[in-house]
Amino acid sequence: MTMSTDPIEGVEQPSDSPGTSTRYSKHIILTTYPGQSGIEPVPLEWGAADAKSRGPIVVSRSGNLLKRRNAIGAHGGSYSIYNALAIAAGDLDADFRPDLRNSEPTFNFPWQPAWADKTKIVSLDPYGHDIVNQFKQELEAGWDIRPTMAVTRANMKLAEIAEDVKNGLLEVDGSILVDSSGEVRVTKVAAEPVWYLPGVAERFGVDEGTLRRTLFEHTGGSYPELITRPDLKTFLPPIGGLTVYIFGPPERIADENVKLALRVHDECNGSDVFQSDICTCRPYLAFGIREAVREAQNGGSGVVIYFRKEGRALGEVIKYLVYNARKRGGDTADKYFTRTENIAGVRDMRFQALMPDILHWLGIKKIDRMLSMSNMKHDAIVDTGIKILERIPIPDEMIPSDSRVEIDAKIQSGYFTTGKKLTDEELTQVKGRGWEKWEDIAVSRSTLLFRRCF
User: Fold this and answer.
1) What are the angstrom distances between the C-alpha of 79 and each of 60, 100, 123, 294?
2) Marked catalytic residue, from 266, 331, 334, 348
3) 149-196 pLDDT per residue, tens
4) Catalytic one of 69, 203, 229, 350
5) pTM check: above 0.85
6) Which of 195, 238, 373, 379 has the greatest count of CB atoms below 10 A from its CB?
């Protein structure tokens, strides 16, 4: 094998490397450096008064843009890897440019002062929904600039909403709640993460250098420019984003003269989609949507924000391992967080410090009814200057029996409640459903009986 190296830019691909594609040159640029020959990043001033003053986010490594990049990472969040796979498979041209005609937002969210405040918004691009208008000249010149936000409208249907209509808890109005089947009209906003690294570091109480080094080390060294390009302050991380669901006219959201009901919800695939009853996630989500619809029907605004933070951002594999440990080790509320800490090292990695950014982007200044019991979410929102007037816990009748372990443990740890907070001793008596009739338990007992007989 022969390999020549360039100490500044990168390495030569091994000459005997199998499957080398002709779409790339043999010279691989592993990283870049500030001041390097030809490196001239497009100016980017986070927190500028408007999009043009701020500048576009350029992250593409395609063609001449490699040396003009002003951000680290890749578009698509957690889907950026699939984009690379499509290129590798030959299904997508590496130099593809999307045709963005007619993709503009269905509602033009008005500019908010927070868009120009680099302390209020540090985890998304406040102009990411409007690049077609704001950077038309650059797009026409062939620059690879892509939206990181999208605004659309849709009809959604939820079985629980149909039940609410049937039970007289909601009324069909033909505008927001379309019919008795539970069909609801909604405006939706999707956002991919775009991090302003100095602001993210400040939110977490660390210096920027520590944040950069930690991100580099613990993503397998995937982003060397976190280390070699301290001049690039923007990072598009490979993580999930968020979706905003707006019930009622979206222009009401920022109007402090109308009431706002808000549910901030973190993803739980098992409950939200498949209705597992080990937690309160889907019931609380359904309750949040109901109250958001109700507030919108009363002349206010209802918002549900859905973050991709599966299993408290620990992931579904970790979550299922914890489920096993809980059920096999005695599922009681006093050990609820210990089971997670034993496997994950922490009880929660959602870190709500970045969550309020989307509220500031929407122009929310006060929340009349916060449909959440989480102390972490409450504190993160209030600490950024948004008022919360009332906190609404999930109604007791909506709590599945097997999720009492979760909810009672969370209340005892600081979650808001209008009900009873159990003592340490009482938590030991809150028990989840066992696995006595399931195969692995049955096999274990049969094996034990067999050993005793012989």
Assistant:
1) 15, 19, 17, 35
2) 348
3) 999 999 999 999 999 999 999 999 999 999 999 999 999 999 999 999
4) 350
5) yes
6) 195
